[in-house]
């Protein structure tokens, strides 16, 4: 029987080498190895690999080197105490606006965007997906001035409108919806382009959605729809049950305009039918796109979003939405288990943008890691329309790794007691000289 299994085992090994190595690293005791860094004693939640328990996580060469109940550091290995924290894959924010380099006042592709590195790592986010701030006319400017210059991994959805979100008017011009141009750019920049976006269309027809679908199909990419203006001529239920296909994304799914609960306080059947079609529902909290009166009963009914995202921009970051951990906290206090919250902030969005190398802690994966604290206390949260909800838990980020390097350290966990360092620490060898003043 075992001999007959050998061909299967060989195929499994070569088809999924990372998973097999990860399994070995998880179950076998490991002696001291030359790891560069070990995160010790944290509670690992890695939904991709079904890990939910205390583990050590080792890093070498910018990649996950081992995940095991106990790892012994070799001399010179940096050890970071992760006890009391949750160790998760680096968070993936599926909906942000970071095209902040245009100089255009009051535009999502302009001053309303934020530069990624100032808001990513401090919140545990290592990957951001810009949701259509740029269109086919200005995407390459976005790439040169933001994507290629950020430490954060920035991916992008190209807006079907030529100028993207530089002005709202630009997203109303049907002649600017050019699928062929979007497809050409998606192919040229396939290393960073992960989808097609349509947003803010005000007219009663389906032009923006149809052209985006055409582009997405030709490029082999999902589309994300920000319906923006809910018109009776093109109802939301028709968007998700007839227009969007498998893996296409409806963002702002808990927006006030979405019909969620029927007269019997049950989730409308069309939403389940859309999910059965493979349509994905994204939070996209933003400044105006999540109300508790929709989200709370939906979560209680077990209809969870497929991805949790912020719709980060200058109008959402300071009052209601705040940041990714706060948005995750809202779903935690609504009743979603922590493991499900992490799934929808890591591995789920990685699959939705077809980047299976992201969102998990498999051995060999890039060492993008977040160390999160779940605090107990009395907290209050507000939605996009000033609705308030009380809760007893809050998620915050204490430390973030990007490619194995500490890029955020709120509580000084990666430091060394200064009294244990050499008396001249901090001086640059061959450059700095301490010159004492003359004796008086």
In short:
The chain is an alpha/beta fold. 23% of the residues lie in helices and 26% in strands. It contains eleven helices and 17 strands.
Give an account of the 3D structure:
The model is unreliable at 1-30 (pLDDT under 50). The longest helix has 14 residues, at 2-15. Helices cover 23% and strands 26% of the residues. It has a domain at 91-394: Alpha-Beta Barrel (TIM Barrel). The radius of gyration is 24 Å and the shape is globular. It is built from 11 helices and 17 strands. It has 440 residues and is an alpha/beta fold. The protein has helices at 2-15, 17-27, 139-145, 179-188, 207-219, 236-243, 269-277, 292-300, 324-333, 338-343, 347-352; strands at 30-33, 37-46, 51-60, 63-68, 71-73, 78-81, 86-89, 91-96, 125-135, 153-159, 193-199, 223-226, 249-250, 280-281, 369-382, 388-402, 405-409. Strands 2, 3, 4, 6, 7, 15, 16 and 17 form an 8-stranded mixed β-sheet that branches. The protein has a 7-stranded parallel β-sheet with strand order 8-9-10-11-12-13-14. It has a two-stranded parallel sheet with strand order 1-5.
Key attributes of the depicted protein:
disordered N terminus; 17 strands; alpha/beta; 440 residues; TIM Barrel; single chain
């Amino acid at each position: 029987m075992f001999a007959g299994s050998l061909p299967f085992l060989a195929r499994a090994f070569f088809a999924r080498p990372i998973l097999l190595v990860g399994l070995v690293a998880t179950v076998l005791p490991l002696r001291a190895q030359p790891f560069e860094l070990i995160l010790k004693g944290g509670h690992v939640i890695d939904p991709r690999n079904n890990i939910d328990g205390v583990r050590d996580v080792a890093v070498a060469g910018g990649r996950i080197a081992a995940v095991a109940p106990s790892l012994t550091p070799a001399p010179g290995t940096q050890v970071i105490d992760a006890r009391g924290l949750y160790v998760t894959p680096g968070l993936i924010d599926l909906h942000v606006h970071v095209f902040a380099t245009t100089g255009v006042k009051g535009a999502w592709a302009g001053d309303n965007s934020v530069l990624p590195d100032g808001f990513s790592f401090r919140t545990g986010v290592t990957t951001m997906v810009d949701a259509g701030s740029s269109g086919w006319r200005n995407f390459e400017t976005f790439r040169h001035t933001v994507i290629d210059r950020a430490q954060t991994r920035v991916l992008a959805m190209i807006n079907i409108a030529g100028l993207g979100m530089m002005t709202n008017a630009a997203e109303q011009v049907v002649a600017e919806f050019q699928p062929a141009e979007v497809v050409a750019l998606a192919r040229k920049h396939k290393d960073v382009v992960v989808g097609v976006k349509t947003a803010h269309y005000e007219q009663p027809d389906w032009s923006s959605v149809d052209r985006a679908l055409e582009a997405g199909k030709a490029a082999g990419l999902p589309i994300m729809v920000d319906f923006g203006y809910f018109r009776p001529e093109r109802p939301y239920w028709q968007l998700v049950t007839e227009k969007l296909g498998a893996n296409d994304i409806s963002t702002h799914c808990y927006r006030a305009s979405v019909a969620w609960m029927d007269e019997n306080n049950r989730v409308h059947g069309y939403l389940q039918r859309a999910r059965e079609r493979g349509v994905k529902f994204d939070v996209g909290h933003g400044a105006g796109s999540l109300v508790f009166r929709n989200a709370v009963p939906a979560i209680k009914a077990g209809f969870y979003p497929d991805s949790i995202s912020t719709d980060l921009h200058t109008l959402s970051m300071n009052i209601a939405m705040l940041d990714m951990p706060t948005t995750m906290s809202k779903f935690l206090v609504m009743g979603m288990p922590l493991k499900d919250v992490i799934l929808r902030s890591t591995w789920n969005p990685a699959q939705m943008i077809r980047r299976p190398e992201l969102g998990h802690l498999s051995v060999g994966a890039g060492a993008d890691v977040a160390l999160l604290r779940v605090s107990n206390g009395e907290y209050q949260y507000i939605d996009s329309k000033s609705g308030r909800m009380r809760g007893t838990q809050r998620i915050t980020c204490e430390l973030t790794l990007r490619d194995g390097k500490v890029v955020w350290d709120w509580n000084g966990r990666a430091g060394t007691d200064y009294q244990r360092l050499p008396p001249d620490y901090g001086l640059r060898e061959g450059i700095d000289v301490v010159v004492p003043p003359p004796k008086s």
